[in-house]
Amino acid sequence: MIEPEIPDLLPGTLYMLVLRALARGPLHGYAIARRIKDTSANALEIEDGSLYPALNRMLVKGWLQAEWGTSENNRRARFYKLTADGRKQLERETKQFEKLVMAIQRVMRTA
Amino acid sequence: MSGEPANRLMAVWRRLIHFGRASAFDRELDEEISLHIEMRAEELQQDGMTRADALARARREFGSSLRVKEETRAAWQFRWLEETLSDLSYAARALRRNPGFAAAGIFSLALGIGANTTIFSLTMEFLFSEPSGRNPGTLAAMRIGGNSHAYMRHYRFLRDAHVFDGLAGSNEEAESNWRSGDETYRLNAMRVTDNFFGVVGVPLAMGRPIEPGDRDVVVLSDRFWRTRLGAETDVIGKALTIDGRPYTVSGVLPPDHRTVLGFGFSPDVYLPASRENDVVALIARLSDGMSLPAAYGRLVAACKELDKVYPPEWSPQASWVMNTDVVPVAGMARLRHLSMVPFVAFFSMLLIVVGLVLLIACANVSNLLLARASARRQELAIRLALGAGRRRIVRQLLAESLLLALLGAGAGLLLTLWMAGILNHVQLPLPIPVHLLIQPDWRLLLYSVVIALASALVAGLLPALKATRGGVSAALKRTERQVEGRWSLRGGLIVMQLAVSVVLLTMGVLFVRNMTKSMTMSPGFDADGAVWASVRLVPEKYPTEEQVRSVTGTFLGELRALPGVEAASVARVVPLNGNSIRGDQVLADSSAEPVRVRFHNNDVGPDYFRTMGIPILAGREFVASDRKGSPEVAILNENLARRLFGDRNPVGHTVRYPAPHMSDPITVVGVAANSKHFTLGEEKPLAMYSPYSQGAGGNLAPHLLVRSSRPEGLVREIARRLGALDPSAAIEVKPMRNALGFALLPSRIGAALLGSAALLGLALASIGLYGVLAYSVTRRTPEIGLRMALGADGLAVMSMVLRESGALVGLGVAVGLGIAAFATHPLAMFLVSELSPTDPPTFLGVIVVLSAVAAAATLAPALRAIRVDPMTALRSE
After folding, report:
1. pLDDT value at position B645?
2. pLDDT in tens, B179-214
C-alpha cells in the first residue's frame, strides 16, 4: 500500500496543535484529528494512537475539559473544550513556537 | 509563577477523582475509540470503499487500541504509586512463600515499633494532652503576685474588670467528705467558680454544668459515677451528702474528660467554690487573636487597679504585678513554666531508649534480609542480567522491608492499644488522683507510619544495596563467600547491635539497681512500727480553730488509750508524702548576718519523734505545754543546726525570721537526727520542726501517727474508733510501710519502664546475635569439615571459631561500653546519690550477660560443625 508522505510532527507541537484546533470551539476526538489534517491541507496528520493519551494528559493538566454531547450525525461523543488555563497555555506555546521558527528561518537563510 | 504549585495540586486532585471512577473511564474510552474508528470508516465509505474494507482500514490506521488504552490510562495514574503497589504485591507473595522469615521479621519489628508507639502515646498523654473544653488554644492560666491561687475577692475583682472574654477559677486541692450510708469517704473535689464550666466550655455527658449562681450542686466524674454510684442513669437531681450538706447532682462528665491541670489529674467531683476563704487558680478565655503578651499587658493593668483596692498584705512595697504571668494550658511553654522539665527529660530518655530497642529490631531484620538476599542471589543475578535496573531491584527489595515494617507497625499498634488499656487502669499510689487516659489518635497513627517508614529504610537499605552491588558478574558467582570480606556488613551489624544493647542494658540495670537501693535505703525514721491515720474534718462542723484543736486532741487521746499503742502524735505533713519546703532568711542569735536557707518546716505534736522513731540528739521533744500562746520553740535537724550554729550546741539559743519584719525569737529546744523529708533521693535536707498547736492547730486535715508493736493489727481498730468519734470525718488508716510507696514510686516507675525496655532489647539482640553468629559458623561448616578431614584438632578449630566471633563481640561490647560511659552521665539526675551512673557492678554485669549470649550463640553451631562427618562436609563443597 502506498501511503501519502506525511512529515513527522515536530516534537512537542502536538499539544499546541490540539489547543489551536480547539480554540474555535469544542470538538470531539475525531474532529480534532480531522481539523488539524484539513487546516494543514493534509500536510499534518496526528497518529490516531497518540491523540487520546495526549488529550487525557491535557485533561489532567487542566487545559481541557471534557463533556459528553451529541455529534453532527447524532451520536454520543465526548467533546473537548479549552479552559482558561488552556487558552493561556496556547498563547505561551504559540509565542515560543514563533520565536523558534523565526530563529530557525534566520539560520536557514543566512547560513 | 505562583499558580504552578496550585496547578500541580489540582492535577493530583483530578487524578484522585479519576481513581474513583476508573471503570466508568474505561467504558467511556472504549466508546470514544469505537466512535473514532466508526467515523473514519464512514469517511472511507464515502470515498467508495465497502463497509467491511472501510472498517478494517480504519482499525489498521488506528493501531493497537489496547496500547492506546494503556497509554491513555497511564496519563491519569500516579506512576510511582502504582509501581509501589505492584512492588508491594510482589513483596507480599515473597513473604507468603517464606512464612518463617516473615514471622521473624514482623515479630521483631512489632516489638520494636510497639514499644515506641506505647511510650509515644504515654508521653503525649502525660505531657501534651489538651484539656477538655472549647478551643483550648485561647485559654490561658494566670498567676498574680507570684501566688498559684488567688482569694475569691481578688478573683471577683479581676473578673469584674472584664479585661478578658471570661475569667474563671479552680482549686484542685479541695478535698471533701462524702457520707454514704454509715461510711464517710474522702473525695478529691475540684472547687470551681460558678462560671468555670461556661468559660472553659467543658462538655458534659449528662445533665447540666455548674452555672452562675449555683451553690449546692455537684458535677460527677465518669469514674465516680460508674464505680461509686453504679452508673445509675437517673442520678441527675439526686442529692449527695458532701461535707455534711446536701448537694444536688447536676451533671456527669464524659469518660474522656481531661482537667485544665492535665498530667492525668482527675478529681471525683466538681463543686462550686462558694466560700469566701476559698482560693482559686485563675484561667482566662482570651478573645480570638489576642496574643499572650497582650493578655499579660491587660492582666498587669488590672493588677495595678487591684493594688489600689486590695493591696498585698505581706509587705507594703509589694504589688500584685510582681511575678505575674500568663501561661498557655498545653504545650511546651506550660511545661517549662511548671518546672516539668525533669519529666520532659525523663520521657525524652524513654523515647531514646525505645528508639534503641527499635534499632536492635531493625538490625535483626537487616540480618534476615541479608541471609535471604544471599539465598536469592541467583534470582537477583538473573534479573540484573536481563536488564532490570539496579534502582528498580533496590526498590523492590525495599518494598519487602516496607511491607514487613507496615505489618510490624500494625501489630505494634495492637500491642500499644493493649498496653494503653493496662496503663489506663494502673492505680498509682499517689496522694492525688491521677488516671491516665491514653487514646489512639491521629498523632499516634502518623507517628507509627513515620517510624515504620524509617525502620523499613534502616533495616532494608543496606542489605538491598549490598545484594545488588558488584553487578552481574559478582552476583552470578555461586556462593557468597567469595565476594564477602572479613569485615562485612554482617560483622558491622553485630558490632552495632552489641553496642546498642550494651547501652540499653546499662541503663536498665542502673535503674533496677536504683530501685533496690531506694527500697533498702533508710528514710531516717522507723516506718515498720508505725501506723498513719489521715483524717479530714468537715469545715462546716468545726468553724473555729479552737474546735479543730479540741477534736484533734480528742482523737489523740483516743489513740493513746488503745491497747498496744506506745506513742501517738500528729503532724501537718507526713515525711515523703507531702511538701513542707520553705525558703526564708533565718537569723541565729550566735551570728550577726541572717542566712538564706531552703528547709523543710513541718509542724508536729508532742511525742512525734518517739512515734516516728527519730532520735533526739540533744535537748528535748515538744511537750504538751508547747502550745499556742506559750513561748515559741523549735527543733532543728542536725544539718540545719550545723548550718546555723556550727559546732555549738544550739539548745537554748534562738532563731528569728528577719523578713518581712523581724519576728519574735524562737527558742531551739532540741536537735533531731537527720531524716528524709520530701524524696528518698534528697541530699542533706535541712529541717526545722515547730509545735503543731503553735503553727497548724487549725489544720482540718491532721495526720495522726501511732507507734505500736502490732501496727497491722491496729489499722482496722483505729479506723473504727476514730470513725465513732466523728462520723462525718473521712478517715484513712494504713501502716507506715505502705505509705513509703509514694516515695518509692519514681524509682519503681523508672525501673519498671527502663528495665522492661532493656529486657526487650536484650531479648531482641540475643535472637539477632544468635542468628547471625550461628549463621556465619554454619556457612563455614564445609571449611571446618575440610580442616577436620585433614586432621585438625577439634579443640583448635573450636578456639579458632571462638576467637573470630570473640573479636567481633569484644569490639561491639567495647564500643557499647564507651558510649554507655558517656550516655549514662545525664541519668544521674534520676538516680539516688549513692549510685553513680558509671556504677562498676552494673557495667561488669552487662559485659558478663552479653558475652554469655555471644558465647552460647557461637559454641552451639561450632560444636555441631566439628562433629560433622568430613565426607558430608566435603561433598557439599
Report:
1. 92
2. 888 888 888 899 999 999 999 999 999 999 999 988
pTM above 0.90, yes or no: no
pLDDT the model gives residue B3: 56
> How far apart are the C-alpha atoms of B439 and B669, rounded to whole Å?
56
At B396, list the grid cell: 523492590
Give the whole-angstrom CA distance, residue B766 versus residue B856.
Answer: 10
Residue written as cell 459528553? A68
Q: Strand, coil or helix: what is B166?
A: strand
Question: How far from B128 is each of B330, B345, B443, B591, CA to CA, in Å?
Answer: 6, 14, 11, 49
A53 contacts in chain B (CB < 8 Å): 68, 71-72, 74-75
Q: Nine-digit cell at B717?
A: 481498730
| Radius of gyration (C-alpha) of chain B in whole angstroms | 37
Residue with cell 544521674: B828
A88 touches chain B (CB under 8 A): no
**B11–A77 CB contact, under 8 Å:** no
| B872 CB-near residues (< 8 Å, 6+ apart) | B785
Selection from B303, B321, B301 nearest residue B146 by Cα: B321
Choose among A30, A57, A59: nearest Cβ to B36: A30
Segments of chain A scoring below 50 in pLDDT: 1-6
Measured between beta carbons, the chain A residues lying within 8 angstroms of B11 are 60-62
Quick one: pLDDT at residue B2?
A: 46
Chain B CA closest to residue A47:
B62
How far is B4 from B709, CA to CA, in rounded Å?
84
pLDDT < 50: residue spans in chain B:
1-2, 480-486
CB-nearest partner of A49 from B18, B31, B67: B67
CA distance B146 to A78: 75
What size, in residues, is chain B?
Answer: 877
Cell 437531681 identifies what position?
Answer: B237
Q: Residue B195: what are its φ and ψ, rounded to 5°?
A: -100, 5
Are B393 and B384 in contact, with CB atoms under 8 Å apart? yes
Q: Which amino acid is at B348?
A: S
Placement of cell 462558694 in the chain: B274
- Alpha-carbon span B184 to A7, nearest angstrom: 101
Sheet with A27-28: list strands edge to edge. A27-28, A76-82, A64-70
| Under 8 Å between Cβ of B780 and B861 | no
Nearest to residue B704, comparing CAs of B612, B814, B826, B818? B612
- Euclidean distance between CA atoms B609 and B587, whole angstroms: 25
Question: What is the rounded distance in angstroms from the CA atom of residue B185 to the CA atom of residue B723?
Answer: 11
Q: A14-110 is classed in which CATH architecture?
A: Orthogonal Bundle (1.10)
Positive or negative torsion for Cα B718, B720, B724, B726: positive
Provide the H-helix boundaries in B523-600.
Answer: 545-561
Please report the pLDDT score of residue A3 as a whole number.
Answer: 40
Of A52, A78, A85, the CB nearest to B68: A52
Contact B627, B675 (CB under 8 A): no
Task: Show the cell assigned to A21.
Answer: 484546533
H/E element, B569: strand B565-571
Distance from CA of B49 to the nearest CA of A (A): 15
B23 contact partners, CB below 8 Å, separation of at least 6: none
- Provide the pLDDT for residue B482: 42
Could you count the other beta carbons within 10 Å of the beta carbon of residue B80?
Answer: 10
Q: How far is B10 from chain A (nearest CA, A)?
A: 8
* Residue reference for cell 482500514: B57
Does A56 sit within 8 Å of B35, measured CB to CB? no
**Are the beta carbons of B62 and A48 separated by less than 8 Å?**
yes
Identify how many contiguous H helices and E strands chain A contains and give both numbers: 4, 3
State the maximum Cα–Cα separation within chain B, in Å, rounded to a whole number: 133
- Are the beta carbons of B111 and B761 closer than 8 angstroms? no
